Amino acid sequence: MPFLKIIRPVNGLFTVLCVFFGAFYLKNITFSMPIFFAALSAFFISTAGYVINDFFDIEIDMINRPDRILPSKQISPKVAYIYALILFVLGLLASVLTQNKFCILIAFINTILLFYYAKYFKKTFLLGNVIVAFAAGSTFIFGALANSNLLFGTIPAFFAFLYTLIRELIKDAEDVDGDKKLNAKTIPVLLGKVAAIYFSIIPFAIMLWLSTYYNSRQIFPIHTVIAMNILVNIPFTYYLIKLRFNLAKEQFSKTSKFIKFDMLILLLVLLTALI
Q1: Core-most of 43, 67, 79, 104, by most CB within 10 Å?
Q2: Looking at residue 81, which CATH number applies to its domain?
Q3: pLDDT tens digits, residue range 1-49?
Q4: What is the rounded end-to-end Cα distance, in angstroms, of the chain?
Q5: CA nearest 170: which of 254, 230, 113?
Q6: What HEC string does the chain produce?
Q7: How many separate domains does the chain show?
Q8: Parent domain of 266
Q9: How far is CA 20 from the centre of its chain?
């Protein structure tokens, strides 16, 4: 079904998982209605973001991904636009039901950011990447606020922000051909694919520092840091090195998919701090 496919339901469910992760990280698991509505709100807003992004990206996707729902004309652009607005409204209404003013504020901010990211900011230098990374990280904070777990909920939020920022830089390099034709101002368009690789090293280095910092504060035991190095940092370094010597679109695509999978591994590694 095109209406289901366009919202990327698997990604939406992963967003729900992130809300729960932020709510319960290093804290006893006790479900409540505010947490449920926070997860529901995040699901609707994130899926609305995918739809509205596809709406504004029709021309780019005609070049880069012609098999997607809108370029292949499975849904009309007008219907997709209305669909996105409905999902955004449902997300905002669900945030109100959390009865938490900060959750409502984050839901409103993310709605505005995702809409204008798709319309304007995606084609700008670095700003679009930061907005997507903020949206990813704020999902954990969203859950943390719903369960009064802000102190520990910010930990996965920081890692999610940094890892998402890396993936966005890699995705821009993958899509550079279509972006050039539409005069986008992304890092790979202006500075080249190699620059995108080097820029991604900065958030990666911060991730390395964070794992050491949390270990020094006795939040992460040493086995969590070791697991992060073996399962996240070393494989990512390997993929970066491969990219540096192979700038083909296919290699960037493989790396982007790897990072998406490795983000799940990263969350599992963070859970080892509970052991």
Answers
A1: 43
A2: 1.10.357.140
A3: 889 999 999 999 999 999 999 999 998 888 899 999 999 999 999 999 9
A4: 42
A5: 254
A6: CHHHHCCCHHHHHHHHHHHHHHHHCCCCCCCCHHHHHHHHHHHHHHHHHHHHHHHHCHHHHHHHCCCCCCCCCCCCHHHHHHHHHHHHHHHHHHHHCCCCHHHHHHHHHHHHHHHHHHHCHHHCCCHHHHHHHHHHHHHHHHHHHHCCCHHHHHHHHHHHHHHHHHHHHHHHHHCHHHHHHCCCCCHHHHHCHHHHHHHHHHHHHHHHHHHHHHHHCCCCCHHHHHHHHHHHHHHHHHHHHHHHHCCCHHHHHHHHHHHHHHHHHHHHHHHHHHC
A7: 1
A8: 2-274
A9: 16
Q: Is the pLDDT of residue 72 over 90?
A: no
Q: What is the pLDDT of residues 85-110, one digit of tens each?
A: 999 999 999 999 999 999 999 999 99
What is the identity of the amino acid at 72?
S
Q: Which two tokens stand for residue 45?
A: 């807003």
